[in-house]
Amino acid sequence: MTASSALLESAVDQLATLPGIGRRTAMRLALDLLRREPHDVARFTEAIRRMRDELRRCEVCCNVSDEPRCAICSDPRRDAGLICVVEDIRDVLAIEATRQYHGLYHVLGGVISPMEGIGPDDLNTAELLDRTANGAAREVVLALGGTLEGDTTAFYLNKRLADRNVLVTTIARGISVGANLDQADEVTLGRSIADRKPYEQSIKR
Predict the structure, then answer these.
(1) How far out from the chain centre does Cα 43 lie?
(2) CA distances from 43 to 10, 36, 49, 151 (A)
């Protein structure tokens, strides 16, 4: 699909770099933007620019945030003694949508994957260990996907947390083996959070 305008073609090329967006969809999006009022397009592009330039990492949980501390960590109604460990922001959004969890989070920024050269030091594991060093946390929930990499990461974290005075639990396996959390429906994920169990029990199969 070739456009009659190099400017339009360039916009389509950039939109097509987004995940799940093919060139046909990218063309529809570009033409939609072209039909919008200039101030609407300016507002759209400014929102993208500000997100890219001003978004930061929460100093507590490593989630994305507008401020040094994210809205979840700043909420006094959250249970600060309960920390849910997830792979990335998509998992935070998925769990929050269930309305079954009222603690804090810790975003690892990935999972251990030797095949891809990703080890514990490449993730936000040190920050998690720091958070559990002072005894403020009473429970750490390992809410990682049912993949080999997710299980490897959970096993590693459980070992590292063994000398902490903290209960390590894992979500119930309502999540299919090999699936990521953001692929689960809200009811299944909510039940998995509510029915979590000690991690050591989960590996005694």
Answers:
(1) 26
(2) 20, 11, 10, 42
Shared domain for 84 and 146, answered yes or no, is: yes
List, for residues 186-202, the tens digit of each pLDDT value: 656 666 676 676 776 56
How many CB atoms neighbour CB 204 within 10 A? 6
Dihedral sign for Cα 103, 105, 111, 117, please: negative
162 vs 118, 139, 166, 183, CA distance in Å?
A: 22, 12, 8, 30
Whether 178 shows a pLDDT value over 80: the answer reads: no
Residue 67 lies in a domain: no
- What range does the domain containing 22 cover? 6-54
CB-facing half-sphere around the CA of 150: CA atoms within 13 A: 21
46 and 106 together in one domain: no
Residues 176, 94: one domain?
A: yes
Residue-level pLDDT at 46: 97
Residue 189 corresponds to which tokens in the numbers above?
């994920």
Contact predicate 79/103, CB 8 Å: yes
Long-range contacts formed by 33-38: CB under 8 A, 24+ apart: 34/8
Tell me: do 43 and 94 sit in the same domain: no
Contact 158, 140 (CB under 8 A): no
